[in-house]
Design goal:
6 copies of one chain form a homohexamer. Chain A is an alpha/beta fold. Chain A contains 10 helices and 8 strands. The radius of gyration of chain A is 18 Å and the shape is globular.
Chain lengths: 324, 324, 324, 324, 324, 324
């Protein structure tokens, strides 16, 4: 007998928010990749952290806090779920997660599979080391532009025996010709360092480094304009490390630095980036064990939603296809 | 034998703050309503919530954090407790709290009793559904003006089988002619929605809806002026949903939305409303189980104090009576 | 193009535990009810609570802590997932959750659907009021036996205007002839009461009431034997209110009573019930907002697993069918 | 006009538990001492602590958790509130709380006032130094017997410049002839010490010192019998330091020592002391800032209730007066 | 045999941050005072608190969060550890900590020892009462200037029997001619008071009192200029009470007042004070038991670092000596 | 000038507990290894975890909670600090911590250095993978006996690409001939598993595996006797995984399993092992980010103390040397 049972893998966004299996933005779980335009991906990897751990639990808790997410953006009045097909495609499956080089390859492999299926990825980390294998899978036709929110430039070199860690992804992304440093902007940089190598590398390679003082003095509108100028109409990757936010907005992170920007400022900047040619994005470094009352995961879920809105617009009525 | 015992129902505001039975703003507990000008009321009802529960514990924790409250306002230098008689009149007594329609009636009945005794109420919720029965008891001579701080317009329609819930009070307040939408301003609105019905209703009825972007761009002074313009010298009700604040200032709430205003901005706006003809007020949606370190309850207690200051001025030396 | 993508609705139990979408016991999400023997059900309803809320978030957090669950029972060495087909069938879908009588009907309706599909339900609450509609759906062929772990008899009468609440389900279950009080045992009862009505009702109707002192004095083995004697070989429902546990083992609950039994004692009792004719079970009253470090949800997930083990044995090699 | 308003200083024990102003055991607040048999007193003093602070907040939080308390004892079936008149008489009023010697005098003075009014006190601390001034007010007719639950003997000498601190009250109580060491039993002693002076003092003076190993080996029944033997029918004071409990039952305390007794064992011992000639009691060292989910305050409230039950029996039908 | 063992009292700043014994700013522990220019001192005293306790645990937790600190300032690009010799000189040793007057003398004595050894102190409290004995040890050649961040003026008189408490240090510092009120600026003042005595005292004595409204309206740059004007080139002491920060940035404190300044604003002000003639500084009122996720201690550690940077510049290449 | 300054690297055990730099058991920090009999070592490594992270923060927090530790054991009345020279020798210094094989070697190298200096190590982890390199450094003269408290046998094989992880150390210790399985006892084993390989390995190799049911049924005394029988007078290593404790006693751990033993039972077992020939010990798997109110770290610190007591007795008056 077949009953009219509704599978829990197809969440109902109008149901009470505390009900149902938790998926990213309450999107359905993908059964295949065939009918997915934007894939929401969890990358529960934190083997690249150098301080407080826990980002491995980030995807789980962002899914949880996603219950608070709804569909129609209050500023653009657009509903991304009407513009394109969005699904939770699950977490990167790992089989050698304890070996950092293997984990990097497994991440790259999963995103290569998404790209082959023509799925644009928006990811939830995981530590920032995951952005390198993601970029390796996406930037196969030459370096892309990048908009990077963070307290740190993440362009440092080796640490504690490993080339790969959460402070180095964008140094190797430059070296491997995955991102164009001259089309890269880093926003929110701050905090003391033991050496200046990372700051120096970013600047010497031509990245536009916006230290926090510049942002607080000039305001979000000026930074938005600068970001648009830097990336132009190139394919662009957006990466958002939640430690760019002040620690009160993101206590659940591994390397907090006081004096950051607020979620209101983050939203103002993200909302200012409409119309760019996004090929993917991520929000990383959410560490639930250090979070309080879900604040960081809720911020992460909302940033995820705003990135999805930016990318979904490319699928709008007037747009019949996207070519990243 | 009668000793010189001082009853614990008469707290001493100069005692160490962590001592004594907790009452709102360390006010005495009312023995009768005869000698009360402003009554501080707890409404521990959260049956109208649609997401995270716990607002039932709001009055209890605001009383606790009230220990940190003192008397003389640092900006106005007024002491409301010298201007009029202020008492904690206890919580609304419920006998059918599990039935939402009955609970609504029990709330209304208690506030009608206060009004009959000529007591101006300032309430601590509880969820936002409580404002409807309060308004039903107060607005008996025609619709009143309203100043409303919130992330949501709370003018949505039925939800999950009930007309009454924390997202609908002001729709029914308009429909029942309790508030005049053209003399109503809603401040801090934001966050995605699944349908636009609430936003549309507020605007179509003529409410002045201040989305958060307008507040952050124009500043609190401009919004204060707009609020004063909207309500004029009409009798006005002030309702403050703590989710209007950014979640870092009010993590203990049911439907947090990132990117809100700060407590500093809230205080600037409240302090700008001196001299209006307030007939009552409330602070709602404080959910202690989701709070951290008492932050939300402390914010609630301070907002309660500022509302009381606004209302007590109507009892000042030059003012011999108030006519709501 | 069809890739070899593995849907996130089919969790891999060998994957790192912090990865993947959270389902009960890491079971797959049911697409239909056709191939399910035991259905794991969430009932996120807490409108029947009389004190601290939050049980609505129970299913979500038990799914989360389920990541720690594995398959082979260390005492029986049985793997329930090999004995029968077990799936997470999602949460009861509600459309009138704010009205307690309607919610009761919606719960009953979902379980009736499961029964029609020949699925044995094991549920995660939610408050204890949910057991009544579950029993209404299951006990359609006459009253069943019941083993009930709890600090309270839950046989009280009306409260605050409602017949239905978390303190009354088993009074109405007796009155409606759903359970046979003479084949019912209540284990762990304790804590002061304002009236003795509930205690009296249970005893007068013939339930075997095991106050905590008896359990602590006689030991778990004696109680197991008594329980087996009481229920005999009747079809039996098992209901586990986590407030039967001492509050240190289950701080996340609505009406904690100190001096309860431990998880070790709970496991000893549950493991002693092998071979009974279970027709369903539930674990209820887990309130994550009051929990610490996931302790209560982890206990709930493990109790869920043990109940599933008890029921799966009925599907073992020697057993070709079950007839509840 | 006088309305039929019910003052919040008279809580209704049948009201929903999360409502109303918080008082000890939901007892009414005393207006005078004239009609009080047992006075529940808060002593929010923690100036005698040597390690983690916070016991000053103990009375506040025990009042909060008292909402969970009800009236009829499940083992004795007695309702203490029917046996005698019980009221919350508030906190000791302090005017020189920063000076430890002055604070001791202020505590003594308040309890002397209670004694003059023929009110038997049951107190909630505060740190253990408060028991000394309480005993000074009570033991005016010669030394009393004492039953003392604790991890520490609290018979140490001076510490950090002060004779008075939470480790010394019972040394001075012996020296001042307030307690009879030969009629004193200390139960639950454990934990390493830097010197053995306190242990030695207790034993040399003839106290019956029950180290935790003896309790765990012999069981609560044996200890109850020993306690009854030691105190005989002398007037007896009962003092319960929550650090006697294992830290999992009382994490919110200043000097936790692992390996203690459980709340179930504590209740078994307390319930075994019925019929003794109690002249007062206290529960101390509850430090809410270190508590989790209210566990320690809930334990404290329940212990308070059990002590009240023990004392109320002296006012029972067969008993027409008590003479401490 | 002597191995090449590296003592844990010499932390390695390049080691993973979660490793090693915790010292202030990961500085080495002083073996003597001979080779120390700036001494980082813990003053774990909180006997002067009037409300929530816990500041005694401040030094411990600031040492813990100091693991996150690094060396090179991102705005000045200076490394204070290269400019002078900085060491953790431990906590003030107390032998009469329970007697407030004795404790004040013990603090003074330790700082006098530091001054004799020509060590500039930067301290971590403890409550604000500690600044008085520190100033007594430092201002031996006449009154000094002071820059004071706080929500309260701390110029109140006696409280609860004691002249010394955390609300009075700067009244006595003026009376004892330790600070020059005309060269003193107090920044961030706010919150209701029961009497106006402290506000009045500060203003009458000529202190520059910057209420929070002035700071928020004029901006940090204007306040920096005003501070520089007030103190001129006099020897200046910097005292930072974390309750000057908004409670969301410093929840772990004893007397939080909503509506304060942010850490970003605090850093902007501190960084604006370069080149002044600092003779010492402190950061006080960090209460870890009320903190969440280490936010307050992390803010305290970073403020400590910035004060150290300000003071280390006096030891720079062009500067061969300092004369406080 | 040389002052009589007392270095903070030499903590004073009689000082108030919340003061001073935190070291293990308040022992002095070693300047060299020359004068150390027992070295307390931190091993802040958690790269071998398979689930919840955070054990890297274990040494830090055990040092913090060590402030509560004192010297004289209440059962043996011995003071280990008088029997031998005990020092905190710091944390293992890592330079390649991100590469699991390198980290294993770095741990082994540090312990080899200790052994060369004739220092007996007692370690605080870190995850359980650290016991393998410790054993490699200690068991250089043939396999040793082992007493192992844990919920898991930790004799599983490879996981996620690595031979080394926290579930495998004792399989390789057997294979490498470091421990003699026939002289090994594992106590507290429980919890479901996905495969039985680890259980099977332990049993097949001849280890004495005490599942939790046996411990709870037979009592701690019987297990102590069995442990003494198994290890005889061989050199023995003691390893204590805090997840052997029930999760309420050790919530801060990576793979909690409900139904474990209590701290009282743990202490009873440890205290029963006096007089054995211990060559080292460890307490592992303390994960502070998941801890509540320091319970797990306090348990860890006390277990550390008890292990030190066991080992210090070998240095007692009658014993002139130890030969592991």
């Amino acid at each position: 007998m077949t009953t009219e049972f509704k599978s829990p893998s197809k969440p109902n966004r109008y149901a009470p928010r505390f009900t149902q299996v938790a998926t990213f933005l309450r999107a359905p779980l993908a059964e295949t990749l065939d009918d997915v335009d934007i894939g929401l991906v969890g990358v529960p990897y934190d083997g690249g952290l150098t301080n407080r751990p826990g980002a491995r639990h980030g995807p789980r808790e962002v899914r949880n806090e996603s219950s608070l997410m709804r569909m129609i953006n209050h500023t653009s009045r657009l509903n991304p779920f009407e513009l394109c097909r969005i699904a939770d495609v699950g977490d990167v499956p790992f089989s050698e997660i304890l070996i950092i080089e293997s984990a990097m390859k497994e991440i790259q492999s999963f995103f290569t599979q998404l790209k082959a299926a023509n799925v644009l990825p928006v990811s939830v980390g995981g530590d920032h080391s995951i952005s390198l294998p993601i970029l390796r899978s996406l930037a196969t036709s030459g370096p892309v532009a990048m908009i990077h929110f963070d307290a740190h430039t993440d362009t440092w070199a080796d640490f504690q025996g490993s080339k790969f860690h959460h402070g180095s992804p964008f140094r190797w992304a430059v070296e491997e010709n995955l991102i164009d440093p001259k089309k890269t902007i880093q926003i929110g940089i701050r905090g003391a360092q033991n050496i200046t190598d990372g700051w120096d590398y970013s600047i010497e390679k031509g990245m536009r480094v916006v230290f926090i003082e510049e942002l607080l003095e000039c305001g979000t509108q000026a930074i938005v304009e600068e970001a648009r100028r830097v990336v132009g109409d190139s394919p662009v990757y957006l990466t958002f490390d939640v430690d760019g936010l002040d620690p009160v907005y993101a206590p659940g992170t591994g390397t907090p630095e006081i004096g950051g920007f607020s979620t209101a400022q983050a939203l103002a900047m993200l909302k200012g980036l409409r119309g760019l040619n996004f090929i993917g994005g991520d929000v990383v470094e959410i560490s639930p064990p250090f979070d309080v009352s879900g604040l960081t995961s809720l911020a992460g879920a909302t940033i995820l939603y705003e990135i999805v809105c930016l990318m979904a617009e490319g699928f709008g009525p007037a747009t019949t296809q996207h070519t990243p």
